[in-house]
Amino acid sequence: MEELSAKELRDRIAAGEITSVEATKAVFERIDKFEPVIGAYISTYRDRALETAADVDRRIAAGEPVGELAGVPVAVKDNMCTTFGATTCASKILENFHAPYNATVIEKLLAADAVIVGKANMDEFAMGSSTENSGLKQTVNPWDTSRVPGGSSGGSAAAVVGRLCFAALGSDTGGSIRQPASFCGVVGLKPTYGRVSRFGLVAYGSSLDQIGPITRTVADSALMMKTIAGHDPADSTSVDEAVAPVCDYLEKLDEPLKKLKIAIVPEFAAGADEQVQKALNEAIDVYKKFGAEIIEINMPHLDYAIAAYYIVATAEASSNLARYDGVHYGHRSEKAENYIEVYSKSRAEAFGQEVKRRIMLGTYALSSGYYDAYYLKALKVRNLIRADFTGAFEKCDCIMIPVSPTTAFKIGEKVDDPLTMYLSDIYTIAVNLAGIPGISVPCGFDENNLPIGLQILAPAFAEDRLLRIARMFEKETDWHKKKSPIV
After folding, report:
1. Residue among 191, 177, 180, 257 at smallest CA distance from 226
2. Which residues contact 27 (CB under 8 A, 6 or more apart)?
3. I need a labelling partner for 80 at 20 to 30 A (CA). Which of 157, 177, 186, 275 fits?
4. How many C-beta atoms lie closer than 10 Å to residue 352's C-beta?
5. Catalytic residue positions?
């Protein structure tokens, strides 16, 4: 059963060949066995999940209608609000926070009859590229437990490749779905900004954050997107479907695009490791067999993406995290003697080092005398980067670049060198600045048997095209079928 994709499991449950209870019990058996090693989950909900699964089985047996994900065990990143269990963001400041409402994506999963088995570990408040910044536990890469799973959605990716769920949701502010998907050898889709509701997602960078699926196959990502995409009146940044309609992403998934024109950015990919570049070139050769035309494009402002991102993102983080004051909810210091100390000591005690670093960077960038020099200038650069992508997509159907300059690195290797760690996101952050969709699909392995991801980018709201292009590659290769040693 563990070899099935989410879509295959969904179909077999619907056909009565497997029960959801059987599938859910199998997942928890694996969690019992492998979670102590992988550390993918912050919390799990065995009793609740089995109750949901039993209800799905009962309705299927009675011939009653069920949802798109009926009976499929899934995980969600622990920065999405749920009325069941805590919503911690992997931070000590929210360790005991219980949300009074569900995020919109959680409501959509429940409406689709998915079985939510647990909430996955992450970098604290989604700030990191390795899940080493979690304030609660360490997650490892199932391909090599001495290495990181990527971040910040490392728990979600590790749970999927470790067969501790059949699909998961992550969030992507600067590559936090695509990079861990690449490091763990699974599929990770960052949708267009505004395509999936952010209501109930605990904010890091509000103009950058986007929720998306991490799955074993492209079809599973299409199925998850079919479930979670769409306009939400509760999210003011959610795009009206009259402007950008949501389609059935599964309907034409296996129809290859004809006369596909692919753009590459030679000077951009040149910074990647030799084995990453080799895997990228071999992936592009697969598309050449389909008759795809390969063109080279210049995107002159991508060099400034990291600088612009770490001003915009930290400025928004500084504003968003100001609400954690030790008064309204969350951790409150017992050492405080007045209200000023309640605020300062509660934050000092409960925020991790990376979160503190980004708050200070953002506060500095927004401070009097520096706003124009840093934040305003970064917004102007952001517009130039967006214009680069707009111009590029006038010449091509998609852009292909690496996901990360390296494969998964050793735990502890970069954690004390923030600048080197930030460079792990060099190929992903521009996509968030531009608000366009991107996907990582497995495209090879390095000499250490560590996965490599191919990143495919498409114009805004072209997820249908993006998924079909990714599926073309997946059908011709078997990288997504490889199993980690721990499985």
Report:
1. 191
2. 73, 117, 163, 164, 165, 166
3. 186
4. 21
5. 77, 152, 176
Tokens encoding 173: 């502010």
Please, what are the domains in the chain?
A: 6-255+433-481 (3.90.1300.10)
pLDDT in tens, 199-256: 999 999 999 999 999 999 999 999 999 999 999 999 999 999 889 999 999 999 999 9
Cβ neighbours of residue 17 closer than 8 Å, sequence gap 6 or more: none
C-alpha closest to that of 423 among 405, 439, 403, 400? 405
The answer to whether the beta carbons of residues 95 and 59 sit under 8 Å apart is: no
Q: Residue 411's Cα: distance from chain center in Å?
A: 20
What pLDDT sits at residue 271?
84
Whole-prediction pTM: 0.97
What pLDDT digit, counting tens, does each position of 295-318 carry?
999 999 999 999 999 999 999 999
Say which residues have a Cβ less than 8 Å from residue 98's Cβ, sequence separation at least 6: 83, 85, 86, 87
Alpha carbon separation from 314 to 127, 311, 325 (Å, rounded): 10, 5, 18
Rounded mean pLDDT, 154-182: 98
